[in-house]
Design goal:
The protein is of the alpha+beta class. The protein is built from 4 helices and 5 strands; from the N terminus they run ββββαβααα. It has one domain. The protein has helices at about 40-45, 80-95, 110-115, 125-140, and strands at about 5-10, 20, 25, 30-35, 50-60. The strands form 2 sheets. It has a 3-stranded antiparallel beta sheet. It has a two-stranded antiparallel sheet with strand order 2-3. A hairpin with a 2-residue loop joins β2 (about 20) and β3 (about 25).
């Protein structure tokens, strides 16, 4: 049996999203590993009536280390899709009006992403690839 990790799937009720627990949550559901959040953040998310939050589980890679801070950038601490989801959530949580959250070329600032719980080991390659996917998705929806 494949080991499981606990996750939270969070979706803002409002189409414009919502800031909560130090992060911005979009209207689209985002799944993140519970291990990437602090207890206070989890409580704030679960108690917010303007967020739809569901607890769940996802498969953990057999050789993965469940502690994000101990993972190497090329060896995510959990399933690759959950890792990507956590990075996407971090990028979507950045404040578009805060210049410190963005590079001069318009990419999410890597040091800002790495300061988020659970994203300490995100690589610039992962950031670039996932940001391109987010931007492509926005183009498709317009």
């Amino acid at each position: 049996m494949t080991p499981q990790i606990e996750t939270l799937t969070v979706k803002a009720v409002e189409p414009t999203g919502r800031r909560r627990a130090g992060l911005r949550w979009p209207h689209e559901p985002v799944t993140v590993p519970i291990a990437s959040l602090m207890a206070e953040q989890i409580q704030a998310l679960l108690s917010d009536p303007l967020l739809i939050v569901a607890k769940g589980t996802a498969p953990q890679e057999p050789d993965a280390d469940p502690a994000p801070a101990d993972a190497a950038p090329d060896n995510p601490p959990f399933d690759a899709e959950i890792w990507k989801g956590a990075i996407r959530a971090g990028m979507l949580a950045l404040d578009p009006e805060n210049a410190a959250h963005w590079t001069k070329s318009g990419l999410p600032d890597l040091s800002t992403l790495r300061a988020m719980p659970g994203l300490e080991n995100v690589s610039s390659k992962e950031r670039d690839e996932l940001w391109a996917e987010i931007q492509d998705g926005k183009k498709e929806n317009t």
